[in-house]
Amino acid sequence: MAYVPGVTPGKWVRIWTQRQPDVRLELNQVTAAEAEGVLREGGADAALLRLPVDRTVFSAIPLYTETTVVVCPKDHLVAAADEVTVEDIAEEIVLHPLDDTLDWERPPGEPAFERPATTADAIELVAAGIGLLIVPQSLARLHHRKDLTYRTITGTPQSQVALSWPEEATTDLVEDFIGIVRGRTVNSSRGRRPDEKAEKAARTAKPKGQGQKQQPRQGQKQGQKQGQKQQPGGGGRRKAGGAAPKSSRSGKPRRRS
User: Fold this and answer.
1) pLDDT in tens for each of the 257 residues of the chain?
2) Which residues touch 64 (CB under 8 Å, ≥6 apart)?
3) Of 133, 7, 126, which is closest to residue 68 (Cα–Cα)?
4) Angle, CA of 227, 231 and 232, to the nearest 5°
5) pTM above the 0.90 mark?
6) Residue 220: strand pairing partners
7) Is 95 helix (H, G, I), strand (E, B) or coil?
């Protein structure tokens, strides 16, 4: 696996080590300009690089877009702001290294007398007070110095990091790494090799009829054990003859003789 400066593959490598403990993942740092050539020549199966790449040859999965910053001395006027625009540095000398990773012909501001060979060389010139430098934030962090700082800048291109590999050389291991960077879980069927899926299915399969417990019969009413409750009777108690006692008074008043 090749990767360019500023890209940190550590989190994906840790997941790979957990899921593929028997397959060693070798990392090879290359410059941004070398990345495509390394893939073309078979020096790596895949690479974490910065777009663009030749899409007629390589497949690519964009992973994230970086914030663009301007690097300056700590006592520079730019350091007093939280965020700057390209108009704010229009009269400043802005360095443009040969290994620049931003997709533009030249940065804003005034050009330097000559272009530094590398971003590291440009950082040294910024520290010497020669000019400013516009880079992705990860490169500003990579080349951190105590006498320099950086601020977000708007109105400039942004660098997009991607996983890329030769389209005609997509191997099973590359497919596994694609699953990792896309956040698939270990149980996901997508991006896994067919033999792995078959092995998993064999481990989890159970013979028919096993694992099914017979449910206890239900349907016997609780009242059958305890007996049905006696319904309350209507009216008063009846005598042995079965006829209810009549009232001693009739509904009509008596006549006097």
Assistant:
1) 999 999 999 999 999 999 999 999 999 999 999 999 999 999 999 999 999 999 999 999 999 999 999 999 999 999 999 999 999 999 999 999 999 999 888 889 999 999 999 999 999 999 999 999 999 999 999 999 999 999 999 999 999 999 999 999 889 999 999 999 998 877 664 545 445 544 544 554 544 445 445 555 555 545 454 445 445 444 444 444 444 444 444 444 454 44
2) 160, 161
3) 133
4) 140
5) no
6) none
7) strand
Residue type, 44: A
Token duo for residue 48: 């974490």
CB 25 within 8 Å of CB 17? yes
Q: Which helix (H) or strand (E) holds 47?
A: strand 47-50
Please choose, from the candidates 22, 59, 66, 78, the residue with its C-alpha nearest in 3D space to the C-alpha of residue 170. Answer: 59
